[in-house]
Design goal:
This protein has 10 helices and 20 strands. The chain is α+β, with helices and mostly antiparallel strands. Helix 2 packs antiparallel against helix 3 and helix 2 packs across helix 5. The termini are far apart.
Length: 510
């Protein structure tokens, strides 16, 4: 009894202390549980099979031992067969489980032939990134993140303070217009003594640890976070995710964490209506878009015969997918939009995926894949086409062609200029009658000319109107009558009056 107490009590005490430590260490346990759930989901099927084989094997072994038969041939055969089948099952489940996971992410995704809703163009991401540093003034920190906030049409920059045990230094929110340098900007400084945490920080200066203290079992991606300024108070918004499922583990949205840059307080909420930016994790939208490969059967998924890939031919370097864009008519709505190419060698853009950037509830946001008709050439081919058709404006010195992004219907928009000054934009409507329809416009959207205007497009109508305006005031050559259809009623009345007067004059002179 004494030996039992001497050994058992320390073991019990150590176990309790370890349990209390793990419970207190909410951040570490959250990471541990997340990773273990993912590992278990891949091993669940073979482990269940091993358990199903191990029980009969153990029963046979105990039964033979009770009868005094020490022969081990039957248990050995069962054990070998179970191990071989479990290994094969593990390999099969690793493959088929990945397909089921993609199917879960597809959820209620729709593939439609409807045009993409009209989307508002914006300054390219690389331009917003380039214009952040010149507007930071005397800030000594390093830029940690730049995000586009579609609801307010602003670029948000989060700056880290230098040092191991430091948080953020300042947040910068700026308007980067098409066609000029930024003039509208706002800086909000962090209280470095009270708000001293950041994503990826050390020890108690880790923002993830503070979030886990408020709510366990949720995680986030650093690239999903962004900063906004509420007056002079910086607010770091961190969209959160949770895990769901046992055999097939997937992620779902779990609200947002709001980190106050003045007080250092963290608030976790699922009511995201008043969040001044995206509340749906962009990484989750990207995972849903990647899962479109499972739109068909398992065989189609395995041989990569179904679904779409993001266009990655280098034209949109630095920002190839999940473009955050505002709806043109409904400014309160925005979406993550990605041009898609077929799986395989084809590089033409044949579809566009759309996932709302704001979403309430704990389920996946609805994803819509819009098939394009007509389709586009690849972004790389479009850049080459722009340089060939508008060589007088592109590209000299530091000028270049920036992002080729969807802007609604079947249209795309590419911006031209330098990182500090957007000068032009080119809008296209896909391959019409075997030719890519493109028009050159000023940065503010004013039409300049078209290399090929799509029949029936607003650009064609505008060019025709200009041509009529150009010729309407020209007098007709002697002996010829002008095109009367181009005359307004007032001009026709004036013409009739002049003809009558001329007839009267000639009759009087006879």
């Amino acid at each position: 009894m004494g030996r039992t107490l001497r050994v058992g009590l320390p073991v019990l005490l150590i176990t309790v202390l370890a349990g209390l430590f793990l419970w207190y260490a909410s951040y570490a346990t959250t990471i541990m549980v997340w990773e273990l759930r993912k590992i278990f989901s891949w091993l669940a099927a073979p482990l269940l099979f091993v358990a199903a084989v191990a029980l009969p094997w153990l029963g046979v072994k105990l039964l033979r031992r009770s009868k005094g038969d020490e022969g081990g041939s039957v248990p050995a055969v069962l054990g070998c067969m179970g191990a071989a089948i479990a290994l094969g099952l593990a390999v099969w489940w690793l493959v088929y489980g990945a397909y089921l996971q993609d199917r879960e992410y597809m959820g209620d995704a729709r593939v439609v032939a409807e045009p993409v809703p009209e989307l508002a163009p914006r300054a390219p991401y690389v331009v917003g990134k380039a214009q952040a540093a010149p507007h930071l003034g005397d800030v000594t920190g390093e830029i940690a993140d730049i995000s586009y906030l579609p609801d307010s049409d602003r670029f948000a920059t989060l700056v880290e303070r230098r040092g191991w045990l430091a948080g953020y230094e300042v947040g910068l929110v700026q308007y980067v217009p098409l066609g000029g340098n930024s003039r509208d900007q706002q800086r909000c400084a962090f209280d470095v003594d009270r708000a001293d945490a950041r994503i990826g920080g050390w020890f108690t200066h880790n923002l993830g640890r503070k979030i886990s203290d408020q709510k366990r079992w949720v995680r986030f991606e650093a690239d999903d976070a962004y900063v906004t300024c509420s007056g002079d108070t910086p607010i770091v918004v961190v969209p959160l995710k949770r895990q769901t499922g046992i055999m097939v583990v997937t992620e779902r949205p779990a609200g947002v964490a709001l980190y106050n840059g003045k007080t250092g307080d963290v608030t976790v909420t699922t009511d995201t209506a008043d969040v001044p930016g995206p509340s749906y994790p962009m990484s989750l939208a990207a995972r849903q878009r990647e899962a479109t490969s499972a739109v068909g059967s398992f065989a189609d998924w395995w041989f990569e015969r179904s679904g779409w890939d993001a266009s990655e031919d280098g034209a949109n370097e630095g920002n190839e997918s999940e473009f955050a864009l505002r709806h043109r008519e409904e400014t309160a709505r925005s979406a993550y939009v990605t041009p898609l190419t077929p799986q395989g060698e084809a590089s033409s853009v044949v579809a566009v995926s759309r996932v709302p950037s704001r979403h309430q509830g704990g389920g996946l946001a609805p994803m819509t894949v819009h098939r394009l008709d007509p389709t586009w050439s690849s972004p790389k081919a479009l850049v080459a086409l722009i340089k060939a058709e508008y060589r007088d404006v592109c590209c000299y010195n530091d000028d270049t062609v920036f992002e080729v992004v969807p802007t609604g219907g079947s249209t795309w928009t590419a911006t031209l200029g330098s990182e500090q000054n957007i000068r032009y934009r080119v809008e296209g409507r896909g391959q019409v009658h075997g030719r890519e329809a493109t028009c050159l416009k000023a940065a503010d959207g004013a039409l300049i000319r078209c290399a090929y205007a799509a029949p029936g497009s607003p650009e064609e109508a505008e060019l025709a109107r200009r041509e009529r305006e150009k010729h309407k005031d020209k007098p007709a050559p002697p002996g010829k009558v002008g095109d009367l259809t181009a005359y307004t009623p007032e001009q026709l009345a004036e013409l009739q009056k002049r003809v009558s007067e001329e007839l009267v004059r000639r009759l009087e002179n006879r």
